[in-house]
Amino acid sequence: MVSSPQKFNKILVANRGEIAVRIMRSAQELGLKVVSVYEETDKDAYHIMRADEAVCLGPGPCRDYLNIARIIEAAQETGAQAIHPGYGFLSENPDFPEACANAGLVFIGPPPEVIRNLGSKVVARQMALETGLPVIPATPRLPADMEGEQQALSFAARYGYPLMIKAVSGGGGRGIRQVFDEKGLLAGLKQSRAEAMLSFGNDEIYLEKCISCPRHVEVQILADTHGNVVHLGTRNCSIQRRHQKLLEIAPAGLEPEVNSAICQTAVRLAREAGYLNAGTVEFLVGPEGEFYFLEVNTRIQVEHTVTEVVTGLDLVREQLCIAQGKPISFSQNQVVERGYAIQVRINAEDPKNNFLGSPGVVQVYRSSGGPGVRLDGAIYQGYEVSRHYDSLLVKLTVYGFTWEETVQRLGRALKGFLIIGVKTTIPYFQQIVNDPDFKQMNFDTSYIDTHPQLLDYREEEREVDKIARLIAEINAHGRNPYA
Predict the structure, then answer these.
(1) Do residues 338 and 225 share a domain?
(2) Which of helix, strand or coil describes residue 180?
């Protein structure tokens, strides 16, 4: 059973943190009531305060955000007629939209069969092949036995190293590893299976030829129930650490003919797949402009803000309207990318300690601002960053008319933050902003590995930081600890 578009006036956001707040903003602009959900271990989260109603799903941590039956029950209890999954958690689980449909609720996203097909990298590759898209040579699913190892070794003998081992399901860099020889391949098969099982509930993996030092480019698409499919240009997500994106840029900076071809390719695949709502088609682009289909993300992306900034369009608003059966509010020829946008993910992590999470209480929080600055966050002074949840504090998106202006604005905006109580990735991004290669837009997926000097910085506390820390400690303890 698949939910059909219908009018609704109240939605439940089945997520937490900044993306939940982001969805609420567009929903409330449209006059919709919003229900938030939370776990007991997340009871002080900011997204709860921004909603019209809030429902506790259970004690947590994390498991209740994945409890489909309980989320459906929360929607029914509060009279919500639709559910937005955000990203992560249940957003790419085809059982979730199916359960929504069975309960008479609208799922704000693609139909379950589309998520099921495109969520499997192997099925998506086959669909891309049938549509005539260029794809990277790869194996089918590898059996979990000696036969699977033999298939992998035969593939390696044909295409050579390095190779990529990938989980069939999911995303976020989990279950993916690059291998350079037979020993690494055999060990990597076991490691990727274990990681895939832990992250996605199945251990299916496959092998793919490695494209050395490509750019990682994605195309934002929208599709409605009236047969309209449009793209909103490209994003460059090449700066990654362990296959997880750190910094995103729009547009991708491709040659005009390559940019046009890759966008039209994404639209063609979306049409063939019967896509609906928002999604992202991802590609690897070689040094000569050749590109290969990579995968489809069947949800809103963390980095959607850069597309919104350069196009002036609200992707979440479009998602909500499409789910109600309305056509996309603009045509393809009205989509214009103007200037540049960069997004960085300010996480509670210690870059110098292998980006280890830095849980703790945010004693002081002063956000940045000024011209061309957008913030998407869900923290506040006194908020406790938990080890149980994602370490993202705030997404900083900056806009400039030229690339040079945008980089300069990013540097200024990063300096404008004051976050005390947890370590953050801000100093690391400040290193990137000052790197000559980054300033010249000279980077690909090898950027982090080939720039180890980015970690060579000293953490110096500014005078304003020292004063803010002292004030915070006086407020917390009722006395000057240094008196």
Answers:
(1) yes
(2) coil
